[in-house]
Amino acid sequence: MLDRRQVRERAHGLTALILGLFLLGVGASLGISKTAADLLSGMLSIPEYPAVLLRETIRDWLSWGRSRSAIQAEIEALRGENAELRVLNATLANERIRVELSALEARKDVARITLRAPMSWWNEIRIDKGEGDGVIVGLPVFHNGYLAGRISSVSLLSSWVELLTSPSLMIPVVVEETRELGVVMGNGSGSVFLNYIPAGRGSMKGMKVSTALIGEQLPPGLPIGVIAEELETTPDGYATYRIAPGADFSKLYSVSLLVGPEGASR
User: Fold this and answer.
1) pLDDT (tens digit, 9 = 90+) per residue, 64-89?
2) Which parts form a coiled-coil structure per UniProt (predicted)?
3) Integer Cα distance of 121 and 124 in angstroms
């Protein structure tokens, strides 16, 4: 007969054996479940891959789109500020030029034309102001308030003026509405043209043309005339325009030129 102690030990052992077998079975089944789950996950990842890729692509595009929108908004803001600065600078420049032109207007003196030779009718004229009146080479000459030419040579009592209609006089100019830079020159037959404007600028008819701030011979902002029409485009990509000058070169009897503070031309 077994005593109570032996019975208790055998009961504990049997219980441990049963528990061990149970855990062994559960562990084995759990391993199988994991293997099956891994296998099933691998199989499902194949049809799932396009959806995952699409999700990642959409997320990247949305992130890029938000960044691009922010950059575009910043660019637009900078463009607006730049446009405002250009308007402000143009306003200040126009105001400065207006003040300078008012000062120049107050210094104009009238000179009478004493000679206009038929052979050089559209190229030059002689006026009755010379060194004795303080005239120097390079002074601008006006007619009807518009630039008509420039002093080309000076003697004691008279001076010669090269007209805008002369093919040898080239004046750097600016189109006031677009700030395009070009060169005005004549053809020797009474016409004036605007050259070296990049082609493709569209209609510029009626836009004002004035002297540009290039060089030191003529002050900027002196009015010349308006653009009448576009004539042609050169092979190198520049357009030529005909200018309607403010000066009436067919009816020149007298012109104006600048004079100094005490009545002497500069």
Assistant:
1) 666 666 666 766 776 666 666 665 66
2) 68-95
3) 6
